[in-house]
Design a protein that fits this description.
By secondary structure, the chain is of the alpha/beta class. 28% of the residues lie in helices and 20% in strands. Bound molecules: iron/sulfur cluster (2 copies).
Length: 217
């Protein structure tokens, strides 16, 4: 899933300064799961904004709340048609994909992000999210026992380990386990240690075109 973090309220207030009527729009999928952009967070942000602008020149602002199932899917944005006519701007709590789909859909209304999109990942412990996939387009998890070296090795090396790990921790980020030691241990468990000797060729970044496009028929 896509993981995001809340933007500082001061940054949001600067972006909202020119607008009088603002729709605070949540997204009911990834950002709801990571507790930054669902219905509850829309309500909390609304309250925080009200408190922040009390006794200021901005106190006349009007806020509206709504949450759609997914902002990255145009079919769920249709429900906003009536609401969007009442507002000067939309403050979106969706990931960067959701904000862009929203801005395309309502191209005559400014769409402002209220969160920072950080990575695709998962949570193994309550409240802690870790990056797990960079969408590299050439998945090699089969060769690395289901552990991604592109995201989990600090150097992103495809033929590890680099040799710098100490006590199982990465030399470049001591808070993280060495991805290549994890790969080694998992391969050992799977009786596939021979894969450690297999050379993984470098990616040809020259072939990588941005933005990427996938056509599924
Ligand atoms: S190798 Fe890693 S970054 Fe690439 S697609 Fe697979 S999980 Fe994602
Ligand atoms: S210590 Fe492990 S995770 Fe860190 S850079 Fe070296 S191989 Fe990658």
């Amino acid at each position: 899933m896509i993981v995001a973090t809340k933007k500082p309220i001061e940054e949001i207030l600067v972006a909202l300064a020119p607008y009088e009527s603002v729709l605070i729009l949540g997204c009911g999928t990834c950002v709801t799961v990571c507790n930054v952009g669902g219905e509850r967070e829309v309500s909390l942000l609304h309250s925080a904004l009200r408190v922040a602008i009390a006794n200021s020149l901005m106190q006349q602002k009007r806020f509206h709340e709504y949450t759609v199932k997914r902002q990255c899917d145009r079919e769920f944005l249709e429900a906003l048609k009536g609401k969007s006519e009442e507002v000067d701007a939309i403050l979106s709590l969706a990931c960067g994909v959701g904000v862009q789909v929203l801005a395309d859909y309502f191209s005559d209304i400014p769409c402002i992000p209220a969160v920072n999109t950080v990575f695709m990942g998962s949570s193994s412990t309550f409240g802690i999210w870790d990056e797990r996939c960079a969408g590299c387009g050439e998945c090699r998890l089969y060769e690395t026992a289901g552990i991604c070296p592109v995201t989990r090795c600090n150097k992103g090396i495809l033929n590890g380990p680099c040799g710098g790990a100490k006590n199982g921790r990465c030399e470049a980020n001591k808070e993280m386990d060495c991805a290549w030691l994890l790969i080694y241990e998992r391969l050992l468990k799977l009786d596939q240690l021979d894969r450690m000797r297999k050379y993984s060729p470098p990616r040809n970044y020259g072939n990588l075109k941005r933005p990427k496009r996938v056509i599924i028929t």
